[in-house]
Design a protein that fits this description.
The protein is mainly alpha-helical. The protein has two domains: about 180 residues, no CATH class; about 220 residues, no CATH class. The protein has 20 helices and two strands.
């Protein structure tokens, strides 16, 4: 006897399709660019840049205008305050970094529309990561963004770019395996892949099967630490910065980490709030090592991009300290610090990108020797880059000083005095290597070579971005209070 066939009725209103509208806009934009290329191969890259910015702006308006239920798409999507705030940061960062593609020199990857399509696919992946508490959807977003990013790095068409992409891919595959294995463990323990239900099940069972819980936490921490470039999962960073285009390296320093921070907060906040001793101890060690070791390695670098790569690892460790502290002030401080870090890093990488050329005079394209006496040969470049180095060093009254001060203050207020002292000492140590390029630019004799030229890659768009970032870095004190209010509005 054949049983009756059951029908499944889906109420489309209950799906809350507006919850995935922002991500859908980015995906549609990517597909539109690919289809546009099918009709003609003669469109200028500026058209694709403008289209990318246009779709990202529509994406941003969709996020800002969202006013539906927090849950959508069979409860897989979660659009809460932190998801909206993170998406706003991701999209605005993506807009400014893609505008750097309106450069003067001809670079291989920017001539292909696939570059811009992959860029939009990547943004959609990061948006899915921050807009869900389902490990399955987070995994899909993570892989969509990662695969796009690996390809974008390789498209730079240098030997070092291929090498960097392969290193990033192989280590990223290991991190993906860690994430999948941790998800499997927590599904076995709780019967769910939603973070809230996983935590509720573990707490309800009074942390039964404790060794397996710890094993899952270790694997999940390893996967997210790779995306945050924390020690000891940081080895890919310097090579990727050196192999990728400068504008993409700046993007990597900011946007993927926003998504990883949100996933880390969602997953670990309950365990840290319950003061789980093993997790707290291992995260404490990772934070201290991530702040300190890259600072020491940055001291001996002779290439500006590699120095910035190590400094970004230290900055990620600094921000991760907020997750360890776990207070409301610390979480607010994390987003404040990362917004200020975005402004300064965008400016610094924009200056380096504007100064790019294809000379073979030095061992590396961004050797410190290339910046000797820059104040005489290119005063605008020297002054703006010097300003951003002072800001990255955390000196007052520049932008990052206020972010570091807020995070250190949150450590003091939570009673973590040792951590606060370590953060303060590393901030002082970082000032030394950030002053190194300033010494080269202002106090060393200029390199005499007819082939050495500066600002070859600069356009009015890039110069405007540099000026905007310079003003915001210097006058950041006036933006701190409004930024804190906006962050708290979304978070709480």
């Amino acid at each position: 006897m054949i049983g009756e066939i059951q029908t499944i009725n889906i109420d489309f209103l209950s799906l809350n399709l507006s919850s995935i509208a922002p991500m859908a806009i980015a995906v549609i934009g990517a597909l539109f660019i690919i289809c546009l290329d099918l009709f003609s191969k003669k469109y200028d890259k500026s058209l694709y840049v403008i289209l990318t910015v246009l779709f990202l702006l529509i994406d941003l308006f969709a996020v800002l205008g969202f006013d539906g239920n927090a849950r959508g798409m069979f409860d897989l999507v979660l659009i809460d305050g932190i998801a909206i705030l993170a998406q706003i940061m991701i999209i605005i960062s993506a807009i400014f970094f893609i505008l750097l593609s309106l450069n003067k020199l001809r670079f291989h990857e920017l001539e292909y529309p696939e570059y811009f399509a992959l860029y939009l696919f990547m943004i959609a992946g990061f948006q899915f990561m921050v807009s869900s508490d389902s490990l399955i959807l987070i995994f899909l977003g993570l892989e969509t963004a990662s695969m796009s990013l690996y390809t974008l790095i390789a498209m730079h068409n240098k030997k070092s770019s291929i090498e960097a992409a392969i290193k990033y891919f192989t280590q990223g595959a290991l991190a993906t395996a860690f994430f999948a294995f941790a998800s499997m463990i927590f599904y076995a323990l709780s019967g769910s892949v939603e973070i809230d239900q996983i935590v509720d099940a573990i707490v309800a069972n009074d942390f039964a099967n404790y060794p397996f819980i710890l094993l899952g936490l270790v694997f999940m921490l390893g996967a997210l630490a790779f995306k945050l470039s924390l020690v000891p999962f940081h080895f890919w960073v310097p090579d990727v910065y050196e192999g990728a285009s400068t504008s993409l390296a700046g993007f990597i320093s900011i946007v993927p980490k926003i998504a990883a921070f949100v996933v880390t907060i969602r997953f670990f906040e309950i365990f840290l709030a319950s003061r789980e001793p093993f997790l707290e101890s291992i995260l404490y060690i990772i934070v201290v090592l991530s702040i300190t070791i890259p600072n020491l390695l940055a001291l001996i670098q002779k290439d500006l991009l590699r120095m910035l790569a190590y400094s970004s690892i230290s900055s990620a460790g600094f921000a991760t300290a907020a997750i360890l502290i776990g207070t409301q002030q610390a979480t607010t401080g994390l987003f404040l610090y990362w917004i200020l870090f975005f402004i300064v890093n965008l400016g610094a990488f924009a200056v380096i990108w504007a100064n790019a050329n294809k000379d073979k005079i030095f061992d590396s394209a961004n050797s410190f020797d290339r910046y000797k006496g820059l104040i005489k040969t290119s005063p605008f470049t020297a002054i703006t880059l010097g300003l951003f180095m002072l800001s990255l060093a955390g000196l007052p009254p520049f932008a990052i000083f206020w972010g570091k001060l807020y995070l250190i203050g949150s450590a003091v207020n939570s009673g973590m005095m040792t951590l606060a002292i370590i953060m303060a000492l590393n901030s002082a140590l970082a000032a030394y290597y950030y002053l190194k390029p300033i010494v080269y630019m202002f106090l060393r004799e200029a390199v005499r070579s007819g082939n050495l030229k500066h600002k070859q890659n600069q356009t009015k768009v890039i110069k405007t971005i540099i000026i905007i970032c310079s003003i915001l870095s210097v006058l950041s004190i006036f933006s701190i209070e409004p930024l804190i209010k906006i962050i708290e509005l979304y978070l709480y």
